[in-house]
Amino acid sequence: MSYLSEVKNRGQKANPFFCLMGINPEKFGDGKARLSMEVRDDMKNGEGWLQGGIYTALGDEAIALAIYTQLSEEETIATISCTTHFIRGVREGTIFADGEVVRKGRHVIYAEATLTDANEGNLLARCSASFIVRAGAGTG
Q1: Is the dihedral of CA 42, 46, 48, 50 positive or negative?
Q2: What is the 3-state secondary structure (H, E, C) of the chain?
Q3: Contacts 24+ apart (CB under 8 A), 14-18
């Protein structure tokens, strides 16, 4: 069964990292994906803000899920690069990561994600990433 089918059927349980971080797949299809995550105390840095690497990880996962909606059963992906621009900090609540495919080539896909807080919709961060497409590598 493909990764996308696993997420459709099992939700969060399809991805161990989703379970670890409390990430929920909200919706996905047509080159887009939305994930949500509740900010927990064990995710915060020493000053009480959500640690920056978690922004990047959540954005990367939203982008990857968006990309999977554009792949064939035989294709898999791997991140080539991911850049995160931090806009605003958050200390609590739920945040959303909205990933979207910008351009899918035969070998490289470029995509972006925005992270926002669920309460007021404030922009928290933007991620941009490129992924390599691997054909015939099985499911990913």
Answers
A1: negative
A2: CCHHHHHHHHHHHHCHHHHHHCEEEEEEECCEEEEEEECCHHHECCCCCECHHHHHHHHHHHHHHHHHCCCCCCEEEEEEEEEEEECCCCCCCEEEEEEEEEEECCCEEEEEEEEEECCCCCEEEEEEEEEEEEECCCCC
A3: 15/61, 17/57, 17/61, 18/61
pLDDT, one tens digit per residue, over 15-41 is 999 999 999 999 999 999 999 999 999
The residue among 135 and 100 whose pLDDT is bigger is 100
Q: Rounded to whole angstroms, what are the CA distances from 3 to 64, 70, 86, 87, 96?
A: 11, 12, 29, 31, 21
